[in-house]
Amino acid sequence: MAEATTVRAYAKNVDLAPRKVGLVASLVRGRSVADALVILNHTPKRAARPLIKVIESAQANAVNNHGFDGKSLSIATLSVTTGTRLKRFNPASRGRALPYQKKSSNILVEVTGALKPKKVAKPAADKAAEKKEEKK
Questions:
Q1: Model-level pTM?
Q2: Could you tell me which of 13, 52, 80, 121 has the fewest CB atoms within 10 Å of its CB?
Q3: How far, in whole angstroms, is CA 5 from its chain's centroid?
Q4: CA 132 to chain centre
Q5: What are the domain boundaries of the chain?
Q6: For 7-135, which CATH superfamily applies?
């Protein structure tokens, strides 16, 4: 398997307007993952919660699936695009219906960082010798 330089996580159809999510996303774009999570945890906007979840998901993907070092991760890409729109109507006077759209967002986070150093497997003879020395 080829080594990945970036790791992705998506959140699709988040029930917030992309304009509102984009404002909060601009606070953490380009920062380290640890800094971004601290900033978002102290941001009093509703859009901060889905962003926290996506960044934590990207961090978990990088550490558990791709062998990245969790402390060296930084946000390479954070984009917010429009998701599906639900068309709805508000009742109005005289039997009219006023249309509106419930907007949703798609959030993409890509993180980069350093890979963990790979452990070198010791031959079986060396392991047996170490066990004998520990017993003495």
A1: 0.82
A2: 121
A3: 15
A4: 47
A5: 7-135
A6: Ribosomal protein L22/L17 (3.90.470.10)
